[in-house]
């Protein structure tokens, strides 16, 4: 029996009690567990999707980096290939080997051929390869047709002659081959057809 007032109960901010009651609808324990499992499954699905996206991004960046490493020298490789083509043209311009030719010319030819073999070996070690399309079907992805020539010896569309070889850098076209392509010979002489008309 004291005159002191009773301690006051802690005051909640206005609306707190109502908000808490509204946030917790009347659910059975099974329904509440099902709701929590659905939320867990949703979070797991979002986490797996984020992991997959991260993995895809890493893989894409790795591929881009590999491509950059492999093809960063593409401009330089085109210039080097031009040097190889000029060396080939120089060798082709030498007179054919004949018996009794001066020994100096023979050694010069053999020396240039050795330099070319060595140079092509160096290029191949760095992923630059030469492809000669002569005798193969014309491939618009690899060859550039410079002329057509009638021929009964090979099927139409076959490369008769390559003025320059195709060059590839790690399998990707660096420079197309300049080629002469076979076409079907004219079956009827135009003068004979004019006389019959």
Explain this structure to me?
It is a single chain. The protein is an alpha+beta fold and 197 residues long. Helices cover 51% and strands 17% of the residues. The chain has a domain at 73-95 and 103-183: Head domain of nucleotide exchange factor GrpE (Nucleotide Exchange Factor Grpe, Chain A, domain 2), CATH 2.30.22.10. It has helices at residues 16-23, 29-71, 74-93, 103-125, 190-196; strands at residues 128-131, 143-150, 159-164, 166-169, 172-175, 177-183. The strands form 2 sheets. A 3-stranded antiparallel sheet has the order 1-4-5. A 3-stranded mixed sheet has the order 2-6-3, with no helix packed on it. A hairpin with a 2-residue loop joins strand 4 (166-169) and strand 5. 8% of the residues are buried.
């Amino acid at each position: 029996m004291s005159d002191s007032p009773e301690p006051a109960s802690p005051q909640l901010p206005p609306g707190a009690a109502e908000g808490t009651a509204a946030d917790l609808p009347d659910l059975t324990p099974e329904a509440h567990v099902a709701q929590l499992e659905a939320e867990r499954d949703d979070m797991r699905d979002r986490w797996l999707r984020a992991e997959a996206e991260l993995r895809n991004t890493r893989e894409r960046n790795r591929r881009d980096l590999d491509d950059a490493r492999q093809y960063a020298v593409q401009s330089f490789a085109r210039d080097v290939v031009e040097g190889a083509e000029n060396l080939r043209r120089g060798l082709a311009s030498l007179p054919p080997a004949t018996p009794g030719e001066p020994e100096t010319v023979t050694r010069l030819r053999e020396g240039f051929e050795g330099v070319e073999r060595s140079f092509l070996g160096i290029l191949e070690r760095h992923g630059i390869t030469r492809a000669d399309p002569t005798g193969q079907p014309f491939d618009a992805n690899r060859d550039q047709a410079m002329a057509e020539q009638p021929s009964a010896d090979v099927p139409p569309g076959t490369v008769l002659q390559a003025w320059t070889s195709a060059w590839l850098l790690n399998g990707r076209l660096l420079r197309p081959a300049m080629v002469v392509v076979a076409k079907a010979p004219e079956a009827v002489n135009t003068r004979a057809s004019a006389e019959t008309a």
